Amino acid sequence: MTATRLQHIVPAAVIFTLSMIVTWLSFTQEPEESYLFPRIISIFFIGLAAWNLIRAGSGLARVGSGISVVMLRNFLPGLIVILIYTFFAAKALGFYASSTLAFIFIYSLYDPAPISDISAWRKRIIVITAFIAVIYGLFAIVLQVHTPRGILI
User: Fold this and answer.
1) Most-buried pick from 3, 85, 113, 141 (CB within 10 A)?
2) Spacing of C-alpha 104 from chain mean position
3) How many Cβ atoms from other residues are within 10 Å of residue 102's Cβ?
4) 37-75: b (≥16 Cβ within 10 Å) or e
5) Average pLDDT in the chain
6) Tens digits of residue pLDDT in 19-29
7) The model scores a pTM over 0.70
8) Rounded CA gap, 68 and 7, in Å?
9) CA atoms within 13 A on the CB side of 128
10) Per-residue pLDDT at 16 exceeds 90
11) How many other C-beta atoms lie within 10 A of the C-beta of residue 117?
């Protein structure tokens, strides 16, 4: 097995494992009505993850050269924000407040505009407000699912 092929198999296996965990969690949580949408999506994603793992294992997925150290270093700050959001902020602060904070941090980390630029902050606030409005409309109005509640909603 070559290093390039291993660079495809390892991420595919990690994604497949994560999709299995998410699927298992969606089928073991209560109340059942709140997890109907995650169940449907997780089944779809576990199928895609399995297909990706099979393609990586058989050598059919030969696109690119895998994840380089530079690319991993660029993704790491966003990954840390997502992990904090997932394991702490969503339950402690509430879904919408923590989503807003996570989006602000990620947007500010990866936006090429300087932090001190006022016009960039205006654009960020407009985009963040639209993003949260779409999230609220999707989860609260369209899907009518329960979101994690916290001290800030």
Assistant:
1) 85
2) 15
3) 19
4) bbbeebeebbeebeebbebbeeeebeeeeeeeeeeeeee
5) 83
6) 898 888 888 87
7) no
8) 9
9) 20
10) yes
11) 12
Q: Taking 70 as the threshold, does the pLDDT of residue 150 lie above it?
A: no
Residue 97's alpha-carbon distances to 44, 72, 90, 92, 149, in angstroms, are 28, 28, 8, 10, 10
By residue count, the chain amounts to: 153
Other CB atoms within 10 Å distance of the CB of residue 81:
19
Angle formed by the axes of helices 118-136 and 95-110, nearest 10° = 140
d(CA 119, CA 74): 25
Amino acid at site 36: L
Confidence of residue 122 (pLDDT cuts 50, 70, 90): very high
Distance CA 133, CA 38 (A): 20
